[in-house]
Amino acid sequence: MDSVAPPESPQPAPESARLGRADLDRAAERLAGRVWRTPVIRCDHFDALSGTRLWLKAENLQRGGSFKLRGALLAVGELAGSDSRGVVAQSTGNHAIAVALAAAEHGLRATLVLPSDAAPAKIRRIREAGAEVLLVGTALAERVAAVEQLRELHGYDVIDPYQNPQVIAGQGTASAELIDQAAAEGVLLDALVVPIGGGSAIAGACLAADGRGPAVVGAEPAAVPAFTAALGAGRPVRVPARHTMADGLRPDLIGELPFELARHTVAEVVRVEEHSIARALRDAFLQARLVVEPAAATALAAALEHGSRWGQDIGVLVSGGNVDLDLVGPLL
Amino acid sequence: MDSVAPPESPQPAPESARLGRADLDRAAERLAGRVWRTPVIRCDHFDALSGTRLWLKAENLQRGGSFKLRGALLAVGELAGSDSRGVVAQSTGNHAIAVALAAAEHGLRATLVLPSDAAPAKIRRIREAGAEVLLVGTALAERVAAVEQLRELHGYDVIDPYQNPQVIAGQGTASAELIDQAAAEGVLLDALVVPIGGGSAIAGACLAADGRGPAVVGAEPAAVPAFTAALGAGRPVRVPARHTMADGLRPDLIGELPFELARHTVAEVVRVEEHSIARALRDAFLQARLVVEPAAATALAAALEHGSRWGQDIGVLVSGGNVDLDLVGPLL
Asked: Hey, do A2-66+165-331 and A68-158 end up sharing a CATH topology, with the first three levels equal?
């Protein structure tokens, strides 16, 4: 595992990045009663292993199996009462499940574009929610192009997983709850560890942490270090998409909006090796009795290996639990 | 799955059974800060499947992986400051893990007697806690005899899993928390479903439910219907110990104290078939993203299949999560 700190950067965030605390609070209000307030879980074994106290925000227990329902409910909700013909979105899986569920709640058609190597469990859940699935290539750019075609062809509204401010504010409510739930136990978190795929989770975490204390740490697979590359280049740049078991973290390019929101706030980005992801997934199962997907295990692995450097109380966004048995079986 | 209601019985509980609400409250006070206040988890899929709302008390996330730490901490704690030479207990596994952890906290030696077909994961955890493990036969009576021998030989204090009032009051705090946590959401539970092994969980649940509303329902493996047999006979009677995957529910005889505490309160006992236990365990993994052991899955299965008969809000004691990968692998 390797890590980088972002370079100093004097320029202010652009206009587009002016999402703030108020947006997050509004998002939380609108989501109240529509998503579970998932528990924050402690585990003696993890505390011993990390040499610090880990506070696990169990969004694997969220409706739809990941924190992504938060953003999708808000973004799709914006269309309610409009004459929308339906929604379309691309995703490695969890945003797609979330959009499918949100669309079903609002009686909207939904078409979801996933990579051909998407987790079968995720594809199945989207279909169970009554949405259509289109499998396109393996690269983000191919999916984005397919979404654009569907938008032009059918007039669907696009629910972008990275560029939509509602989505980012919604995802941020998970981190905000974690900070609140720790505070209710008398604990000010020293750091918040969040997995990085396209960037919505880390951008949301930066909104949530703003002015509230915790350093925001990102965790990305060493195989797809898109945020690290973006920090180096000063803008999102495409990285070679090597294979990672963390299917949710395969985007080879960070979204522009999340990058602008997060780049000046992120304290550190840890690149997590595959064997560390596998071990954290297994430990979550056996020691914390939680079913987590590899993306969540990536954040957990970073916290287990580096947490004690960041302080005494470390929050971890356990982002989702939509895992394939074919993957988990051999790991266990 | 089959079920029986207890026969009407006019005779009062004997003196030994006069554990009451006050004992439970004292137990909760003494345990505060020593066990996790585990979350109560909701799951859309389970609600749809059961036709009612399930409130899952996730004691699989408890320290030591089951609710049994509650009773063990209290019972072993009684010996602290005495000149105890150590403790000994028999158990199918979770009480043994709990006694081992509690003894370690109090700096006491611990020897645990388990059946030779105990779950390897449970044996490992006991040894990790620094305690000695003795594997003896497969029947409860053999383990009880071994405990008696060790007591005579070494002068150890016995931490009985069924007859010790501290243990039962401690176990009851899990059900009491569940009732409180649902109430905090504005919900009065209609029923509380609890697995039955030796009887401490159901006796504790009866204490917790007393005067607070929920009907108490027991769930036992159809293969080992020890509580059903006891209700029929009016006293604990040994049943043929057929094989069940629910290793925690293998005792072939209900303890006398728990039976006396529970017999007049239990509304119904459901006998759960093996295939239902397996399905609930699998659903807990895939749909609720919780690792549960078969004993917990037994209660969950009863709630999924019968919950809607009992009302609109059904609490389930998800008793533990110490499961063997060898068992779970093929099920998943």
From this structure: yes
| Of B44, B151, B119, residue with least CA distance to B323 | B119
CATH code, residues B68-158: 3.40.50.1100
Using a CB–CB cutoff of 8 Å, tell me whether B249 touches chain A.
Answer: no
Beta carbons of A285 and B291 less than 8 Å apart: yes
User: pTM for the complete prediction?
Assistant: 0.93
> Do A149 and A125 contact (CB within 8 A), yes or no?
no
Q: Is B41 on the interface with A (CB under 8 A)?
A: yes
Query: Among all chains, which residue has been given the structure tokens 């069924």?
Result: B162
Residue B10: what pLDDT? 42
Report pLDDT for A2. 66
- Pick from A42, A43, A321: which is nearest to B289 by CB? A321
B251-273: per-residue pLDDT in tens?
Answer: 999 999 999 999 999 999 999 99
Which CATH number does the domain B2-66+165-331 belong to among 3.40.50.2000, 3.40.50.1100, 3.40.50.300, 1.10.10.60? 3.40.50.1100
Distance of CA A86 to the CA centre of its chain: 24
Q: How far is CA B57 from CA A62, A131, B27, B38, B317, in A?
A: 16, 32, 18, 7, 5
Q: Does residue B316 sit in helix, strand or coil?
A: strand
Contacting residues of A for B289, CB less than 8 Å apart: 60-61, 65, 290-292, 321
Instruction: Judge whether B329 is closer than 8 Å to chain A, CB to CB.
Output: yes
HEC letters along chain A: CEEECCCCCCCCCCHHHCCCHHHHHHHHHHHCCCCCCCCEECCHHHHHHHCCEEEEEEHHHCHHHECHHHHHHHHHHCCCCCCCCCEEEECCCHHHHHHHHHHHHCCCCEEEEECCCCCHHHHHHHHHCCCEEEECCCCHHHHHHHHHHHHHHHCCEECCCCCCHHHHHHHHHHHHHHHHHHHHCCCCCCEEEEECCCCHHHHHHHHHHCCCCCEEEEEEECCCCHHHHHHHHCCCCCCCCCCCCCHHHCCCCCCHHHHHHHCCCEEEEEEECHHHHHHHHHHHHHCCCECCCHHHHHHHHHHHHHHHHHCCEEEEEECECCCCHHHHHHHC
Please, are residues B239 and B232 in contact by the beta-carbon 8 Å criterion? no
| Rounded CA separation A95/A87 (Å) | 12
Give the minimum alpha-carbon distance from B45 to chain A in angstroms, rounded to a whole number.
9
For chain B, the structural domain boundaries read 2-66+165-331, 68-158
CB atoms within 10 A of CB B193: 31
Q: Give per-residue pLDDT as tens, A125-159.
A: 999 999 999 999 999 999 999 999 999 999 999 99
CB contact under 8 A, A292 and B290: no
Angstroms from B328 CA to nearest CA on chain A: 9
- Tell me, what's the ipTM? 0.92
Say yes or no: A104 contacts chain B, CB-CB below 8 A.
no
Q: Is the Cβ–Cβ distance between A21 and A210 less than 8 Å?
A: yes
Cβ–Cβ < 8 Å for B306, B1: yes
Virtual torsion, Cα B6, B9, B11, B12, nearest 10 deg: 40
| Sheet strand arrangement including A215-221 | A2-4, A266-272, A215-221, A191-195, A313-318, A53-58, A40-41
What own/partner pairs with CB < 8 Å and gap ≥ 24 does A100-103 have? A100/A125, A100/A126, A100/A129, A100/A130, A100/A131, A101/A63, A101/A64, A101/A69, A101/A72, A101/A129, A102/A69, A102/A72, A102/A73, A102/A75, A102/A76, A102/A77, A103/A76, A103/A129, A103/A131
